[in-house]
Design goal:
The protein has about 450 residues and is of the alpha+beta class. It folds into 2 domains: about 15-350, BirA Bifunctional Protein, domain 2, CATH 3.30.930.10; about 365-455, Anticodon-binding domain (Rossmann fold, 3-Layer(aba) Sandwich), CATH 3.40.50.800. About 40% of the residues lie in helices and about 20% in strands. The protein has helices at about 15-35, 50, 55-60, 85-95, 105-115, 160-175, 185-195, 200-210, 210-225, 230-240, 245-255, 260-275, 345-350, 375-390, 400-410, 420-425, 450-455, and strands at about 40, 45-50, 65-70, 95-100, 120-130, 145-150, 180-185, 285-290, 300-310, 315-320, 335-340, 365-370, 395, 415-420, 430-435, 440-445. The chain has an 8-stranded mixed β-sheet. A 5-stranded mixed β-sheet has the order 13-12-14-15-16. Strand 12, helix 14 and strand 13 (about 395) form a beta-alpha-beta unit. Helix 1 runs antiparallel to helix 6 (about 160-175), helix 9 packs antiparallel against helix 10 and helix 11 packs antiparallel against helix 12 (about 260-275). The longest helix has 20 residues, at about 15-35. The two termini are about 50 Å apart.
Length: about 450
């Protein structure tokens, strides 16, 4: 009995039409990155586990896909360890590598490894897949693409302002209405100090990062489970539920902080950033959210999170400032900031909002019908001419019934079909049929490029 074919949960195949839409997203994002002066790099799908572990916090480490060592990995395991029930310990002994969890930590490793070949500040972008051993659900996959853009080697808030502008530019071009939410880890550290839980900052932010998923009560329960005192949680609730204008929320927070410390520094940075953004032509809403707490441990300053307005889905873009991520690889004091676009979630949003242009799917713009070997040979020079002028064209390879060839063109969403039968071949003409309207026009063969340039903008 043959096995039913399938892919692992949380992964997907992409059909040609889907790939055309995905490439529209990738091309749009890549064009914006190029416009702002960023250069592309790539890193391997797998990294040494020593490079990955400890960079994403306790929750992130659990989601790393580990790769078994090659060869007889069990044979190299000490006898006394083989019956151990400590799965994490065993995994560390039989796995030296893992699939990358994101593109930021591999980028930090890349920068340190190639620092003598780079010019700082270094502005890079990277569009590649990442893997997380997460529970698959709507908008959450185990394999997905990230489109990252980072500046490393500069602590200027001008970089954050540019990244906010990049976010806005990308989503305006894609036709997605979003909210660009901002916060600062220094503000979160100030809040932790204000409620008397400085040593519980990570526990607080990990719980707050789940606010959209489990709600305020769920966040409060998780904080209590993580050892945050009930009276501290009561002080925190008004901050989490804070509303009003960006300036109003900043003023309210400033009044809660002491004169010195991370809190006031964070509010000053946020005000400076918002003042810069006010000078730019940002079309989407920018919102300062003191409850925004992206859970990754390496963020130290500004943090970004972007949500679609018209579709209920998780964040479709996020990132932030990391002051010393390269320090764990031996290069200290190199500040960076970056954002990551989630291409798969963006795709899902655009499907639900009918956000793809009509001409994205059709790769072939014109198909020549095959009336037989002699007529097909006549089409070949015209195919060459069209392709050289930038028109995607093809010739149906087999001399089969016209109905079947037309059905092929319909199924491929090819907008125009060219017919060169005996009469057209004798008179050096070609009949072009519009597959959408059914209308057709006969023209001279040497005018086909000009004609198509008029009707399809080639």
């Amino acid at each position: 009995m043959s096995q039913k074919p399938s892919v692992p949960k949380g992964t997907r195949d992409f059909l040609p039409d889907e790939m055309a839409r995905r490439n529209h997203i990738f091309d749009t994002i890549r064009n914006v990155f190029d416009l702002y002066g960023y250069v592309p790099i790539e890193t391997p799908a797998m990294e040494n586990l020593s490079s990955l572990l400890g960079k994403y916090g306790e929750e992130g480490d659990k989601l790393l896909f580990r790769i078994l060592n090659s060869g007889d990995f069990l044979g190299k395991l000490p006898e006394e360890e083989r019956g151990s029930s400590d799965s994490n310990r065993l995994a560390n002994m039989i796995c030296d590598r893992g699939l990358r969890y994101d593109l930021t930590v591999p980028f930090a490793r890349f920068v340190v490894q190639h620092r003598n070949e780079l010019t700082f500040p270094f502005k890079r972008y990277q569009i590649q897949p990442v893997w997380r051993a997460d529970r698959p659900q709507k908008g959450r996959y185990r394999e997905f693409y990230q489109c990252d853009v980072d500046v490393i080697g500069s602590g200027s808030l001008l970089n954050e302002a540019e990244h906010a502008r990049i976010i806005d530019d990308v989503f305006v071009r894609l036709g997605i209405n979003v909210i660009i939410r901002l916060n600062n880890r220094k503000i979160l550290a100030g809040i932790a100090g204000m409620i008397g839980q400085q040593d519980k900052l990570t526990a607080m932010t990990v719980a707050m990062d789940k606010l959209d998923k489990i709600g305020l009560d769920g966040v409060c329960n998780e904080m209590q489970e993580r050892g945050i005192l009930p009276e501290a949680i009561s002080k925190l609730k008004p901050v989490i539920g804070m509303t009003g204008s960006n300036s109003g929320k900043l003023e309210a927070l400033s009044s809660l902080f002491q004169e010195k410390g991370p809190g006031p520094e964070g509010t000053r940075e946020m005000k400076e950033l918002l003042d810069m953004l006010a000078l730019l032509e940002i079309k989407n809403r920018v919102e300062f959210d003191p409850a925004l707490a992206r859970g990754l441990n390496y963020y130290t300053g500004t943090i970004f999170e972007v949500k679609a307005i018209d579709v209920e889905i998780g964040s479709i873009c996020g990132g932030g400032r990391y002051d010393d991520l390269t320090g764990v690889f031996g290069l200290e004091g190199l500040s960076g900031v970056g954002i990551s676009f989630g291409a798969d979630r963006i795709y899902d949003v655009m499907l639900q909002t009918v956000g793809f242009p009509e001409n994205v799917v059709a790769s072939t713009r014109l198909m020549f019908v095959n009336f037989g070997q002699k007529e097909a040979i006549t089409c070949l020079p015209l195919l060459e001419k069209l392709r050289k002028s930038g028109v995607s064209a093809e010739l149906y390879p087999d001399n089969v019934k016209i109905k079947k060839q037309m059905q092929y063109a319909n199924n491929r969403s090819i907008p125009f079909v060219a017919l060169i039968g005996e009469k057209e071949a004798r008179e050096n003409t070609v009949t072009v049929k519009n597959m959408k309207t059914g209308s057709q026009e006969t023209i001279r063969q040497d005018e086909i490029t000009k004609y198509l340039g008029t009707v399809i903008g080639a």
